[in-house]
Amino acid sequence: EWSRVETAEGVFDRAATDHYVTYLRTIAEAGIKPWVTLFHFTNPIWFADKGEWHQRENVGCFLKFVEHIVPQIAP
After folding, report:
1. Is the pLDDT of residue 75 over 80?
2. Which residues, in sequence order, are CB contacts of 16 under 8 Å at separation 6+?
3. In sequence order, which residues have a C-beta less than 8 Å from that of residue 61 and are 6 or more positions away?
4. pLDDT band at 61, cuts 50/70/90?
5. Which of 30, 65, 71, 72 sits 20 to 30 Å CA-CA off 14?
6. Element (H or E) spanning 3, and its range?
7. For the segment 7-55, what is each residue's pLDDT rounded down to a tens digit?
8. Which helix (H) or strand (E) holds 5?
9. What is the helix (H) or strand (E) element at residue 4, kind and residue range?
């Protein structure tokens, strides 16, 4: 959930990130292969205030989230 992990533009919540990392590790240890999606059709409020996906330059905001989270959850 992007809005839980990046609560303000460029501000990443360590506890929220840790929650998802722990969750993924736990299910993997149980023999379940997770299927991770990074966009769930909800946006952070700060992103909505910037015009969301209607502004081409805002794609970079999502890219920063992806660059933050993927290295932590990738095997």
Report:
1. no
2. 1, 4, 5, 7
3. 9, 47, 50
4. very high
5. 30
6. helix 2-5
7. 999 999 999 999 999 999 999 999 999 888 999 888 999 999 999 999 9
8. helix 2-5
9. helix 2-5
Measuring CA to CA, which residue among 23, 46, 45 is closest to residue 36? Answer: 23
Query: Helical H runs in 7-73?
Result: 14-29, 45-49, 59-73
Q: What is the pTM of this model?
A: 0.87
Find the radius of gyration of the CA atoms of the chain. Answer: 13
CA–centroid distance for 6 within its chain: 7
Determine which helix (DSSP H) or strand (DSSP E) holds 2, and give its type and residue range.
Answer: helix 2-5
